[in-house]
Amino acid sequence: MDIRTGLFYLFSAVLLFAAFRVITARNPVYAALYLVLTFFQAAGVWLLLKAEFLAISLVLVYVGAVMVLFLFVVMMLDINLQSLRQNFWKHFPAAATVGALIALEMAAVLMGGFRVAEEPKALPGVAAAAQAGVQYSNTKELGKLLYTEYLYPLEVAAVILLVAIIAAIALTLRQRKDSKHIDPAVQVRVRAADRVQIVKLPPSLPQPPAAAAPAEPKA
User: Domain span at residue 159?
Assistant: First the structure.
């Protein structure tokens, strides 16, 4: 067994353990951290498969952005774990049935992948570079495919993401009575004369002390 096979088994073992701890950890923060470890191990497996672009995308997008957001949300929310565990055994049969069904479906898909099939057709640029013995970049070949053969699906996906971003912004722009909203246009048009008014007042003099009342004569 060479070092590449050993690394594959190591990454796979840690990935399965971390994925199992994601669904069994009682603390949601620990579950999110185990999910981060799972993403790193999957990125390592992709590096062994020479898919550097997918590996770095997984680390940057999911670990660097999505999971950091999840951690902030989980740590800021006051989650009552006792209330979450109250009805666990009540819903366990339905959850076990769904989990077993998903496991059977995944097993059927994976077992079909071990059958002997025709070799996948290699990309034209990759095949030519491999025959010539020249080092090629899978990121470059992926970019060529995205912006040539899959240009329209890429644009459709970009438009869908843009609509989702606009919808998320529109959902947050609600008029609330308890929020102190400031219109930026009003701030730009403001003038100093509208905010500050200088009033000239006469100088104030100290008030003279009151004269003492004359003492009454004694009888």
Answer: 134-173
